[in-house]
């Protein structure tokens, strides 16, 4: 009997302003979501692992300038990118993460190698890039990541001396930029991956929830895989991803109930806006958010594909 497999991805959540999204921009975003979820699903359909599927999907989103990860990363106060990523394999709860990397085209791929080849869980900054060099990764100049759109956003933020804009010129000015994927393969293994450029105008080597296992990324066979996107500091304080898994493990809640309880509960009370994507051991997919939108897509166990942006779209 053929076992179920499925995949879900996200490209960030927040106050996504449709009124400021051109038809061309929406088309590029939806095309990238379609390509990412389709290629990840193809790996699963060919008997590939959930880990390979989520890394493939996230890499495609990292290559797009329309998401806050990889090529499209926001700029720090020093006008450069500092990227974070994590991968987790639910089979034995293996995990790998990198933080504060500046010259790696696809941080999620390096996070996978940290998990599989380093003997560690997280590597930071120069150490992570030294490890990458030993594995033969190309050194990617900062110019690759620079886009006019991100530079204009940074200048506007600096003018307001803030890390978020009160007046929006782009549809994602209030978006909590992260990309992620979760998957179930036909061996019953779950996996999650998350990647981000972090917070616009960030300082002091700030690291958010994306590379922190149990906060922005988590996978545990027989229960759930989760990738989060939102206000990183609050997601860390609430241990969002691991809290969802714990509710399923100990309270026997289904994936929808557990995600809703966390996203609409203490996280929201503490001012943590954003969302999660999650998939359980039977392939049931959940998109949860307490904000107006999330770039998202999935292909379920029946092969049905969906691509959505607004929160009300089901």
From TrEMBL:
Q: Which InterPro entries match?
A: Ntn_hydrolases_N (IPR029055), Peptidase_T2 (IPR000246)
Domain of life the protein comes from? Bacteria
Q: Name one Pfam family in it.
A: Asparaginase_2
Cited SUPFAM superfamilies: N-terminal nucleophile aminohydrolases (Ntn hydrolases)
Q: What is this protein called?
A: Isoaspartyl peptidase/L-asparaginase
- Which organism is the protein's source? Vibrio rhizosphaerae
């Amino acid at each position: 009997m053929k076992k179920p497999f499925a995949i879900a991805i996200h490209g960030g959540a927040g106050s996504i302003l449709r009124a400021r999204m051109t038809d061309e921009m929406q088309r590029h975003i939806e095309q990238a979501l379609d390509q990412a979820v389709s290629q990840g699903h193809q790996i699963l359909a060919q008997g590939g692992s959930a880990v390979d599927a989520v890394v493939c999907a996230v890499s495609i989103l990292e290559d797009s300038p329309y998401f806050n990860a990889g090529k499209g990363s926001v700029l720090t106060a020093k006008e450069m990118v500092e990227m974070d990523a994590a991968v987790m394999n639910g089979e034995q709860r293996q995990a790998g993460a990198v933080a504060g990397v500046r010259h790696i085209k696809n941080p999620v791929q390096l996070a996978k190698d940290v998990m599989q080849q380093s003997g560690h869980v997280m590597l930071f900054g120069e150490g992570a890039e030294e490890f990458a060099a030993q594995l033969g990764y190309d050194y990617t100049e900062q110019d690759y990541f620079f886009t006019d759109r991100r530079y204009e956003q940074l200048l506007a933020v600096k003018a307001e001396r803030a890390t978020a804009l009160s007046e929006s010129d782009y549809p994602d000015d209030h978006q909590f930029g992260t990309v992620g994927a979760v998957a179930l393969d036909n061996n019953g293994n779950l996996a999650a991956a998350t990647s981000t450029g972090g917070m616009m105008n960030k300082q002091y080597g700030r690291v958010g929830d994306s590379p922190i296992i149990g906060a922005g990324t988590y996978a545990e066979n027989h229960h759930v895989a989760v990738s989060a996107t939102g206000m990183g500091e609050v997601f860390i304080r609430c241990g969002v991803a691991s809290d969802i898994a714990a509710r399923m493990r100990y309270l026997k809640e289904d994936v929808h109930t557990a995600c809703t309880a966390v996203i609409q509960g203490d996280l929201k009370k503490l001012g943590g806006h954003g969302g999660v994507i999650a998939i359980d051991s039977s392939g049931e997919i959940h998109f949860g958010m307490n904000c107006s939108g999330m770039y998202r897509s999935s292909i379920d166990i029946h092969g049905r594909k969906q691509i959505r942006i607004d929160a009300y779209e089901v």
